[in-house]
Amino acid sequence: MLAVAELYKRFAALEVLSGFSLTVPRNGFTALVGPSGCGKSTFFDLLTGVVAKDRGQISWLGEEVDHLCGVASYMQQKDLLLPWLSLMDNALLPVRVGKGVRKGEEEKARALFRRLGLEGFEGYIPGKVSGGMRQRCALVRTLMFERELVLLDEPLSALDAITRRSLHSVLLLLQTEFKKTLLMITHDVEEALLLADEVVVLSQAPMKIRERFRLTSAKPRKITDPELMGMKEHILEELQEELNHDAV
Amino acid sequence: MMRSRWVSLALILVILIVWEGYCRLFQVPDYILPTPSAILEISVTRTSLLLPHAAVTALEILLGILLSLMVSIPLAVMMFSHPSIEEAVSPFLVASQSIPVFALAPLLVIWLGYGIASKVLMAAIIIFFPITVSLLEGFKNCGSEYVVLFRLMGAGFWTRMRLLYWPWALPYFFAGLKVGVTVATIGAVIGEWVGSQQGLGYLMIQSNARLRVDMVFAAILWLSLMGLGMWKLVNVLERRVIRWK
Ligand SMILES: Nc1ncnc2c1ncn2[C@@H]1O[C@H](COP(=O)(O)OP(=O)(O)OP(=O)(O)O)[C@@H](O)[C@H]1O
Ligand SMILES: [Mg+2]
User: Fold this and answer.
1) Considering its fold, how many domains does chain B have in total?
2) pTM for the whole structure
3) Among A88, A114, B151, B193, which is most exposed with the fewest C-beta within 10 angstroms?
4) Domain span including residue B100
């Protein structure tokens, strides 16, 4: 379980986090939605240790840690593939930086390429493939990290609707087949409702939890499900309120 | 692209024809201004004289570039890894640019002699700045999200240098090198003017003294072809190394 308690962070006069707490169960899938600029990415930066927290506790599997640098892998909207490496070499980068590439690792990456529909493109450089394929390659790289916790910051928001949809099933695989624990930031309320076990709606900075929605229906889900449609309306209203709040 | 190339070719041709015509019409003596055809002729027929001198100059430039790389690459890496070093060194780097480097040529000849060493150093000093600065610029330009990604993988500075910063900076490096090879030619020749026994610059001075202006022009022609050749070489190298652009 990932547990965050009483996290504080301020940038000069701007208080981004003021006692923020959140838990994600092991092998769970939690989605964060909130108004733009409320502090979601900053929260991830604190988790990964890229930005130092002012105070607060972060613990993973019951053990308190300074940050999740060695525990979590991180994927963003930008695929961050190195343009001079082939897709395969990009995917193997975490291994190459770590203990070095062995035969087994390459086999594993090959299997993932097959699983994610990238077979045959292992030798291509990122500049020669589509955005969806690049993002899939970034997902393979994320999986090659061998880390149980996966942080996703709007991982699919740069893609077109159809590609995004095909990658939803891949994200679900992370939970079911690869037994990852997922924490995902998204602006797409539908995406959150389709994928997550819990959707957390956040307030404007200082970021607080406004409401949490538990979702128990089986996946894959359909957005036409009346229960989801109701939740979607509700969440969108809340986000609208947050925006109006800001305007006042 | 193609069209502008034709235009520049035509322009050169017009200049040459006017030059040739002027010399012939007014019977300009050879020791003032030889005709282009005479220059071309001597450039080809006297290859056996020109080639050894050209080889020396080429060697000076090449060694100058190598020497410069041996210093500027480590320096750029050090300046990048330690901002305090950059702060300490960059004023000197900038100040060094305000000295006309050519003024150093007589000193270098006094210190290092008439041989090839003073010219190598001259060429090296001239290209040192563009290469160091462009490489450092390239390192710094590396996207911070990439650095974060590598940190999360647990990569230390040298791993990041090898896998991230260095390939990232390569296009900058080549831009600097391209500027470098062209100015290095000037450096070597000026070194040769000041004092030497070999090289195209030496040949120019000698021929000038003997009023063999045609040979001066032939040396210039060889020199510019050499500069062009090296520039092309760097371009080819760049295209082989940077395949992703
Ligand atoms: N390094 C920093 N220094 C100063 N202010 C910062 C810094 N990083 C973020 N902020 C500010 O903190 C606030 C939260 O930023 P953050 O990027 O976390 O928002 P977000 O919720 O991810 O927004 P979005 O949904 O648009 O991605 C913003 O007002 C931003 O300007
Ligand atoms: Mg963000």
Assistant:
1) 2
2) 0.86
3) A114
4) 34-241
